[in-house]
Design goal:
Bound molecules: zinc ion
Distance between the termini: 70 Å
Structural class: alpha+beta
Order of helices and strands: HEEEEH
Radius of gyration: 19 Å
Number of strands: 4
Strand content: 15-25%
Largest sheet: 2 strands, antiparallel
Shape: elongated
């Protein structure tokens, strides 16, 4: 076995894995800020945090219902910040 062969086999396995897992979802237009790129295969729908404008997978986001709207945050901290900002305006 040459290293090149191992490399090719690795790629083939990767492609096979991709086929099994399913087609890759379309990427969001390059507006994403760094941070959420762990290369995990499980990618949820990305939602934007209105406070720090980070994109987080919906499944991992902190959800908040406010004014009949749904908001998603990267953390509880951003959620609190958001509520404080809303509170200041009124
Ligand atoms: Zn945030």
């Amino acid at each position: 076995m040459t290293p090149l062969r191992l490399f090719i086999i690795g790629i083939l396995l990767f492609i096979l894995y991709r086929l099994l897992v399913g087609p890759k979802k379309k990427r969001m237009g390059g507006k994403k800020k760094g941070g959420v790129s762990s290369g995990g295969a499980i990618q949820d729908v990305l939602v934007e945090d209105p406070v720090c404008h980070t994109y987080i997978p919906k499944g991992q986001a902190v959800q908040l219902h406010h004014d009949k709207k749904k908001y998603y945050f990267c953390s509880d901290k951003c959620c609190e910040t958001f509520l404080k900002q809303k509170g200041d305006k009124e």
